[in-house]
Design a protein that fits this description.
This protein is mainly alpha-helical. Helices cover 60% and strands 0% of the residues. It has 2 domains: 79 residues, no CATH class; 89 residues, no CATH class. Bound molecules: iron/sulfur cluster.
């Protein structure tokens, strides 16, 4: 629907407020390491396609970061194909669908050094707490989220995180929304922020 509306230089800003923690984490990791592993390129690349980032802008975004640690030729040889593949321009030419939460939570758990997966499922407790509170969630809010996480209710924890970071509920109130898909999270956030 909004294909073409999003450009590479908007991603950093959007990641801070409107990306779910799973995608924000991959983005932060890409900026730190100037690289992404396969699982992240798939999970994040398809998410970005889903929010309306066109193929040429996706290549620009990844090329800008990756070429801080490698030359342009290496990038083009090793990584352009995969990005075009995500957009159905290579291989089987399938228009791949962005991953939903269940797939991210249940499949292909991240190994050491990987940035993909669901933080509410795959982060260790202290790291998750630290990340959530550095995004402005109060101490009480962090405790509430951790309670859901410990009970295995990742998507409820994610919904609570959404509500708290968008000022739509307090830390002790019931969770109102249900997060099924990272792209749904993004759309809900943009709707709220842009009216
Ligand atoms: Fe991402 Fe879904 Fe996990 Fe939220 S619950 S962090 S949207 S995978």
């Amino acid at each position: 629907t909004n294909v073409g509306a999003i450009t590479a230089d908007m991603i950093d800003m959007l990641s801070k407020k409107s990306f779910p923690l799973c995608m924000q984490n991959i983005h932060v990791s890409m900026k730190q390491n100037h690289h992404m592993r396969h699982g992240s390129r798939l999970q994040y690349g398809l998410f970005l396609k889903g929010i309306g980032l066109p193929l040429d802008e996706a290549i620009k975004l990844f090329r800008t970061e990756f070429t801080k640690s490698m030359d342009v030729d290496t990038f083009d040889k090793k990584y352009s194909y995969g990005i075009r593949y995500n957009y159905g321009k290579e291989g089987k030419k399938t228009d791949y669908t962005p991953f939903g939460c269940m797939k991210i939570i249940m499949n292909n758990p991240p190994a050491v050094g990987d940035a993909h997966g669901c933080p509410f499922r795959h982060f260790d407790t202290d790291f998750l707490k630290q990340r959530i509170s550095s995004n402005g969630v109060s101490k009480d809010g962090v405790e509430t989220i951790m309670k859901y996480t410990k009970g295995g209710h990742c998507q409820v924890a994610c919904a609570k995180y959404f509500e708290l970071t968008h000022g739509i509920s307090g830390s002790s109130s019931e969770v109102e929304m249900f997060i099924q898909h990272p792209n749904q999270y993004f759309e809900n956030s943009q709707k709220l922020l842009n009216g």
